[in-house]
Amino acid sequence: MSTAKCKQSRAWGIFASILLLTGLAAGQQMSSAQNTPSSYRQKPYPIAQEENHKLDQLRDKVDLPDLPSYTGKAKFVSGTVEQGAKGGPRYSMVFESEEPQSQVIDWYDNVFRMYKWNGIQKSTSSVSANHKEGHYASISSDAVVRTGVSSPKIHSSFTVHYQMAVR
Fold first, then answer.
1. Of 81, 89, 74, which Cα lies nearest the Cα of 153?
2. Does residue 165 contact residue 100 with C-beta atoms inside 8 Å?
3. Burial label, 98 (beta-carbon count in 10 A; 0-12, 13-18, 19+)
4. Measured CA distances, 64 to 55, 104, 162 (Å)
């Protein structure tokens, strides 16, 4: 190859490299410009006073409107109530049950149907629904496996989440 052709080939290579680098730099500037919001929020979102979000510990289970207590062999473990929740108080109660999780979920599914709750959504480990008065309930369950115990009494644990509607 002649020196003139070699210089010309090398010049085209340098030119192509410059074009490639220029295109990459321009692409980065455009992508960062697209991700930058045009304006920033000047004031923080308002947050209610701290006492409105205070959780109180429950000493025992609470009877909830339109949701009877589980009639199987279950023991109250712990619970909380948030009195200042938007819309009404929120309850969360944890129980241990001698029945398997599928039996607990089926029981609550039947209760929702008998008490005419709406929008029932059921899976193998949870069930939830809305009440015509605006209440919302969700029950989730976990199977409990205890190793090294020949006859475990506790077969599952379940949590009842309940949002009471206050009108």
1. 74
2. no
3. middle
4. 17, 17, 8
Q: Residue 135: name the closest of 81, 65, 58, 53 by CA.
A: 65
* Distance in angstroms (rounded) separating the CA atoms of residues 27 and 39: 22
Q: Which two tokens stand for residue 51?
A: 């006492």
pLDDT digits (tens, 9 = 90+) for 1-33: 555 554 555 555 555 555 445 554 455 544 444
Residue-level pLDDT at 165? 82
Please tell me the distance from the alpha carbon of residue 53 to that of residue 36, in angstroms, as a whole number: 34
- For the beta carbon of residue 112, count every other beta carbon within 10 angstroms: 24
0.90 exceeded by the pTM?
no
